[in-house]
Automatic annotation (TrEMBL):
Protein name in UniProt: Thymidylate kinase
EC number: 2.7.4.9
Pathway: Pyrimidine metabolism; dTTP biosynthesis
Organism: Sphagnurus paluster
Transmembrane segments: none
Length: 217
């Protein structure tokens, strides 16, 4: 069977080191000769992404339902691109994905099921890595508090919902792995590579969908 590219998602609380580790992972894959594409959500370059960027910087206000749907729409803008890349044999790394959208919106009080619904049938990752760090440790890192959601109480709630999501998608066949992001950068990089390396040469089988049991025909 012809292998396709692996789809890897890196999630975590704010200031957990996601951007650093996704860049390091891309470099490691490329050094191993693996075609790799890094996508960051939200993608702030699109029209929808610019609205999200303005909101996150507290330059505009939007209803919680509206901003949640904009985040989801931003992911759907790139869904077909992700699938084409995977089919062509390119490994795709996502810095945040649908799981962040659910965790942050549900933490604001929106119903969990409602938050999940817009992302049903998006491409499912082959591996989701959750960078685990305490809100206290994240707060001690540089730049904390510059964006709307970077508050300790909010981050704690987000972390709890991430764990719920992890258990849920693991039961549906998506591998969810918690990585201790409180370690030194090089150790976290090494831990991530240990989980990614088995997928580096490609994945057999079709691209799966998120929450397939929720798809209504």
């Amino acid at each position: 069977m012809v292998k396709r590219g692996a789809f890897i998602v890196i999630e975590g609380l704010d200031r957990s080191g996601k951007s650093t580790q996704t860049s390091l992972l891309r470099a490691n894959l490329e050094a191993a000769g693996i075609p790799t594409e890094l996508i960051k959500f939200p993608d702030r370059t699109t029209a929808i992404g610019q609205m999200i960027d303005s909101y996150l910087k507290s330059q505009s206000d939007l209803d919680d339902h509206v901003i949640h749907l904009l985040f989801s729409a931003n992911r759907w803008e790139l869904a077909s691109t992700i699938e084409k890349l995977l089919t062509s044999g390119t490994t795709v790394i996502c810095d945040r994905y649908a799981f962040s959208g659910i965790a942050f919106s549900a933490s604001k009080g929106l119903p969990y099921e409602w938050c999940r619904a817009p992302d049903v049938s998006l491409p499912a990752p082959d591996l989701a890595l959750f960078l685990q760090i305490t809100p206290e440790a994240a707060k001690a890192r540089g730049g904390y508090g510059e964006e709307r959601y970077e508050r300790e109480e909010m981050q704690r709630s987000v972390g709890e919902i991430f764990h719920r999501i992890g258990a849920e998608i693991a039961s549906e066949g998506v591998r969810w792995v918690a990585v201790d992001a409180g370690h030194e950068r090089d150790q976290v990089e090494e831990d991530i590579w240990m989980f990614v390396k088995p997928l580096a040469q490609g994945v057999e089988g079709p691209i799966r969908r998120l929450w397939p049991d929720k798809i209504r025909v």
